[in-house]
Each structure stands twice: as C-alpha cells, then as structure tokens.
Design goal:
Layout: H1 3-15, E1 17-18, E2 21-24, H2 30-35, H3 39-42, H4 45-48, E3 58-63, E4 77-82, H5 99-109, E5 111-113, H6 115-123, H7 133-151, H8 155-158, H9 161-170, E6 185-188, E7 195-200, H10 213-226, E8 231-234, E9 236-237, H11 245-256, E10 260-264, E11 285-290, E12 307-312, E13 316-320, E14 324-329, H12 331-348, H13 354-363, H14 384-389, H15 403-410, H16 449-484
Parallel strand pairs: 3-7, 3-8, 4-7, 8-10, 10-11, 11-12
Antiparallel strand pairs: 1-9, 2-14, 5-6, 13-14
Helix pairs in contact: 5-12, 6-7, 10-11, 12-13
C-alpha cells in the first residue's frame, strides 16, 4: 500500500460511524411496538409475506454485535465472529454502544414475540420429563397460578388451548403458550425467517484490541462471504467518497461470489452531507432514509449520485440487548429494511443473481424526487410487494456498474512501459545468432507543423527580398542607359 493510500485509509477509518440515534426509552408492551412499524403495511411487506418470509436466506450484519438472546432474535442468529479483538463470536462488543447491531438485526430478521409467550417460556424452561406424578401435579398447580398472573383470571380463554393440552399431556417443554388473539407482538423484521450472521467490529483507531477499522471491515466482508452470507448489511458510513485499496479485494470477493452488499448512505446529523464509503463502492446498494410521509429525512439521510433506493429511517423501533425495545432514527435502520427486502426477493426468486435482485428492488421502487435517479431518493422508495412478485423491465447488466470494472479502469489502468531491451511478443523481431535481439530500428524524431513551418517561412521571405532587390537593380540600370542616350 502506498503512503497516499495509508493516509486515505486512516482518514476513512476516522470518519466511519454507525448511522443510528436512539430516541426513547423502552415501553411496557411489545404489541405497542409492533403497532409503530408502519412500514410493514406501507411498503407492502405484509403482502409479500403471503409469498415468502425469507426462509433459506442468510443476512450478515457487520456491526457492533447482536444479542441473540433477545426474544425477537431467538433462533435467528446462526453464527458469528469478532474481527476487532474486543468481542466474542459476534456477540455485542462491550467497549462501545452495543445496542446498534441488535437494533439493526431486529429490523432485518426479527422474529416478533408475544410478551406473554416469552414469560410463559421462561416459566417452563426446565426439564419436566423427570418429574414423577406427584411432582408434576404440584408443578402444574404452580404453573396455573403463574398463568393467571400473566394472562389474568380468564387465562384459559387467552391462550392456545391446543398447545396447552399438548404441553400438559407430553410434559415436554418449552413450547410457548401464546394468546389466541394476537401471537405476533414485538418488533418483527422484514424477513422474519431469514438467518443472521453477526460480525462484530470496533470503529476505533487505534484499536487497542486488534486491527484498525480498515482491516476489520475487509476481514468482516471476507468472513461473511466464506460463511454463507447471501446479503451483507453495513449500517455504517463515512464522510469520504473514496476508499482504501485494502477494501477492493474484500468487496470484489463479495461481488465475485454473488453476495449483495447493502449499506447506509449516512446521516446529515453526523456531519455526512454526502454519501460516503462503503456506500459509494460500485455494486453496493446505497440506502437513503425517509420519514413516514416519504419526505427525505433532514437529519438522517445523506445525498449523492451513489444513492440507489430509499426506505424508512424515522421514526423507527428496534430491539435492545437485554430484551427491551426502543425508538430510534437513522439510515442505519433503513439499510436492514432493504436488506430484509432483498432476502424476500431472493427467497421468492432463487434463480436470480445478486445484481438481478438489486434490479428488482430498484426498478419497482416508487419514484420520488426528480425524474430518473434522484440524488436524494435514488430510484425511489422501496416497494417490497412489487419487488417480490411484480413485473419488472428486462435486466441489462450494463446498467449496473461493477467493482471489477471500476478497479480495471481506476486501479489497474496504467500500462507499464517495457524495459529498454524487452521485446513485445507481437513485435515481429527476429533474434540474432546468439539469441540476443537484433538492433531495433530507431525511429526518426516525429515532425510537426511547427517543426517545418518556421524555416519555410524564413526561406520564402529571403527569396522575396532577393527578387525585389534584383528588380530594383535592373530598373536602375535601365534608367541610366536612357539617361545616357
């Protein structure tokens, strides 16, 4: 790496921030948080769930780590790693704001929960198969009392009776007993049956625990690809449009392995007025943020020609480590909404490539702003139902820039001059008897209009002067002769 690229890498690392702001303390009831997820209906997500809920897809969340013990993420996190040296296998990094990665993951693939069902699951989280009949009767009596505490006196009418009967007969736990009227409370992700890979990092330079930001992100992207990610979500951004060459290899690796990278555009409130890397990397799907009325967010969305699509960034809700929920803002939340939508599109259309998934998302977006691609909205606001099942224009690869082409032009465009005695393979030069190349004919110095125009003009002027003088001499001689006569 050159000194210039090291300087750029340090500046980029210093400018990288997570793009979300927590606004409110947790509320009491999980169903209240579900009611605040307006984008589920407005963006056609619930309609898309009639086709798929993202089963079989894997989203890597490169962030501060994910609390997999949160009820809405139970069973969602299938693997993880830490690339900072400060965390543990994708669990939250303790040294920084750990809530960010959990918030992001919940919007991408949260399962949704019932607060009551969670409480019941905690009650039965023990081995009941070893109880004899008397112990079982005692346990069941206490359990019924607990159900009354949770659901009220009419708890029999509030729970799934079939689940209750099966549980009582089998004595096997835990099977969560849910209310009949609304089993789906809490924050739910766009792709609630997709899987999460958690890659934790530490945006701090110097990093006292390991590699710097530049190195961590390159390692995180590579690990995600190697461990089965279909989609990578990066809810982080910088104020720099350029990126270090160290990222070329990692993001190119994702591109070559057909992995779609989705990144937040960044937040104006963080000082990022223009979209910054990694969202500016060709092939990455950059996500802008809008409010509930689909107006571009004044605080939570940067702008620029790299913007691909817009999604909800305010007001948002999400899961907090420890089982709580919170209200928050930022393109950090808009990005996993789009990543979840990509998972739905891909699950419903498994033969597509990453670029074709991106094409369906962009070509079905609800156009906003200026005609064509707007520097704030990109192609428009996300429409998940149309992206999953709608008719789209024919895919043309030439419409979508690739990192491979960008690298060819911008990183490897210089042609090395051959050494003095080096002979190009197609030069047609025959080697001499000793195997050495024969002397190459030396071309003459190229001539230009300036090379010969000056001498010619001077010569013509000299001839003209001589001619004039000659004529003058002849005229003088003739005049003298006439005078003598």
């Amino acid at each position: 790496m050159t000194a210039g690229s090291r300087t750029l890498g340090a500046a980029l690392a210093a400018g990288l921030t997570f793009s979300g702001v927590i606004l409110a303390a947790p509320a009491a009831n999980a169903d209240e948080w579900r009611d605040l997820q307006y984008w589920l209906e407005d963006y056609g997500i619930t309609e898309a769930w009639e086709t798929t809920r993202g089963e079989g897809m894997t989203i890597a969340v490169i962030d501060t780590g994910v609390d997999s013990s949160h009820p809405t993420l139970s069973g969602a996190v299938v693997g993880g790693t830490d690339v900072s040296g400060a965390g543990d296998n994708g669990a939250p990094v303790d040294q920084i704001a750990t809530e960010h990665g959990t918030l992001v993951a919940s919007l991408a693939a949260g399962r949704g929960t019932s607060a009551e069902a969670t409480a019941v699951a905690e009650l039965v989280d023990e081995d009941l198969e070893d109880l004899d009949d008397d112990e079982w009767e005692d346990w069941w009596e206490d359990f019924e009392t607990s159900l009354e505490d949770i659901y009220g006196e009419g708890w029999q009418e509030e729970v799934d009776s079939d689940a209750l009967d099966e549980f009582q007969e089998s004595r096997t736990a835990p099977r969560a007993l849910t209310r009949d009227d609304d089993p789906d409370d809490g924050v739910v992700g766009v792709a609630p049956e997709a899987s999460i890979l958690s890659v934790s990092l530490l945006l701090q330079d110097p990093n006292p625990y390991g590699g710097g930001t530049e190195e961590q992100i390159a390692e995180a992207v590579t690990w995600a690809v190697d461990n089965g990610a279909d989609i990578i979500n990066m809810s982080l951004g910088s104020g720099f449009q350029e990126w270090s060459e160290a990222w070329d290899e990692a993001f190119l690796y994702a591109e070559q392995n057909d992995v779609l990278v989705v990144a937040a555009s960044g937040n104006r409130a963080s000082g990022h007025l223009s979209v910054g890397a990694p969202a500016t990397i060709p092939g990455v799907l950059a996500v802008a943020g809008v409010d509930e009325s689909r107006r571009i967010s004044e605080e939570s969305s940067s702008q620029g020609i790299a913007i691909g699509i817009a999604a909800a960034s305010e007001p948002l809700v999400g899961a907090m480590p420890g089982g709580d929920y919170v209200q928050w803002n930022g393109t950090s939340g808009a990005s996993p909404i789009v990543a979840g939508a990509a998972a739905l599109v891909w699950a419903a259309n498994p033969d597509l490539s990453a670029q074709q998934v991106k094409h369906r998302l962009l070509s079905t977006a609800d156009s906003q702003g200026a005609e064509g691609v707007d520097p704030e909205y990109g192609h428009g606001v996300l429409d998940v139902a149309e992206a999953v099942s709608g008719e789209v224009p024919a895919f043309e690869a030439a419409q979508y820039p690739t990192l491979a082409e960008w690298i060819r032009v911008h990183r490897r465009g210089e042609v090395e001059e051959p050494e003095q005695n080096e002979i190009p393979e197609d030069a047609g030069v025959v080697a001499g008897p000793e195997g050495e190349p024969r002397a190459m004919p030396q071309p003459g110095e190229p001539s230009t209009a300036q090379d010969w125009a000056g001498p010619v003009a001077l010569g013509a002027a000299a001839l003209l002067v001589i001619a004039v003088l000659a004529m003058a001499a002849i005229h003088l001689q003739l005049a003298r002769r006439q005078g003598e006569n």
